[in-house]
């Protein structure tokens, strides 16, 4: 039982180290610099269907109804003045002279989607680089509209955006992983060395010695 308690404490220590490393890694803003993803919602398409929604994270899912602007269907039922909820936007219109790139987020000012395009996305959005901040997740990504349908109905829009890149394990994460692996090895090793109860109780040492002497003694005729 003492061995089990030691292993429990060892595993808990490893788990604590792993979660601590993950918490430290997630404390800093995350820049999505992976390959570009193309998303498009056709004119007149049903925005409630998943194929007409861009799933960025569980809390940010972008779509558009037949009119007005884009919104976050994970948090909103339609477009509002501050849509898409949970996001902030930066373009050269509200950041003149700045490099509009996710890697340069610290130098940018962010506002709502509508204001980032000077309240005229139909004329200002297409072809213009933007940086989107997913506020709750603290993620920054590059986005460029390739189409935005105006008029009274349709709601078509399309864009290219960056995607996340898998992060290599940090030193703390790698150490925690090795720690957990060592714990599993020790646990399995202890189980293999533990005597089986199915074979029944072993005879006392003195009895085993007597039996061995009797077997070794020469038989008399």
Can you put this structure into words, describing what you see?
- This protein has 221 residues and is of the alpha+beta class.
- The protein has 2 domains: 1-28 and 168-197; 34-161, no CATH class.
- The chain is 31% helix and 20% strand.
- The chain has 5 helices and 9 strands.
- The protein has helices at residues 2-26, 113-116, 121-124, 171-193, 205-216, and strands spanning 30-32, 37-41, 54-57, 60-64, 70-72, 87-90, 129-134, 139-148, 157-161.
- Strands 1, 2, 6, 7, 8 and 9 form a 6-stranded mixed beta sheet that branches. Strands 3-4-5 form a 3-stranded antiparallel beta sheet, with no helix packed on it.
- Helix 1 (2-26) runs antiparallel to helix 4.
- Residues 1-25 have low confidence and may be disordered.
